[in-house]
Here is the input.
Amino acid sequence: MTDMTEDGQEKSELWPSSGFRLLDRDDAGRLVATDDFLRAYLARPELAPVEESCDAERTLYASLMEAPARTVTDAELAALADPDARENYQVLLGFRDRLAETGSIEACYLGLFQSGGVTLPALFLDQMAHVIVRNILDGVSDPFRARAAELLFREQTATVEDGAILMGDTEVIEMLAASGGMGNLGRLVSESGVKPKQVELDVLLPDTADMYWARNERFDTVLDLTFARPGLDALCRVMEAWIAHFLELGVSIQPVQQIADERWVWHVGLDRDSSALLNELYEGAEVAPERMDRLLSLFRLEFDDPSLMRAEISGRPVYMALSMSEDKKVRLKPQNLLVNLPLAREA
Here is the structure.
């Protein structure tokens, strides 16, 4: 059955490049790696042979394309003349073996952060988050949720104007800036002083948001995260779904404008800057105004079943924050939603 938008138009596939269609699902709805999924990694330019590749590298590559799950010996890796190629294969094979050991993309992702020993490059972590949230959003028709979910795997650049908080994809913005200079989101100005030209970097609005589907792979729409607007609500729903998918527990997340709670007992920073900021506020430290100005959003999280929380704080809300860095970058860490909640300890 073809997915449709709310206005009855055929909806484009969400993020085909995520690799979602190359994966299987287990009975719990978790993603299971396939040979075709592994072949997609082998086809990346970091691994595909080039003119200078040695015979041993070409032989290894061909054999893995034929049987991506086959055992690779230390001797085969040692025979690669290019040390960079050798390292790239070691990383990929380590990732492949971890996927096989854990049984799913989700288990691999969560296990890395629960163990405290994250050894995979950030690129792999972002790609896992990308395909996992694609799995979570399968069948979702709300473009605001799809755009908000991009925050879980792509860095954003924030623009704060007249009280509005706008998020644009950093990579896209930098690409546009490099091609002619950039002012506010959505407008390029060339250094030569020619008349500025409009570019396709539009803010998602309720009456035009379905344009997202046809452009979703371009990552060139802007999300409004202003309080009480659809984008911020959508981010809350995405975070709820992310937690439910991994931890199998229900939570309710709502935006708040301040933390007015004399019994504040737990908080989670959604990025590095917010973690430090909330720690200082919790301890009663005075925070410089310029740092407070970088605080973009506050959230209140509550467990549907308080008995799943640590007994000493059962029923109390968890406060969360999202901030931008000094250079206006927003790097949401979705793993913090999984490993920093006050869950009851297993017996």
In short: Confidence is low (pLDDT under 50) at residues 180-184, 186-200. The first helix runs from residue 35 to 42. Residues 230-339 form one domain. The CA atoms of residues 101 and 108 lie 8 Å apart.
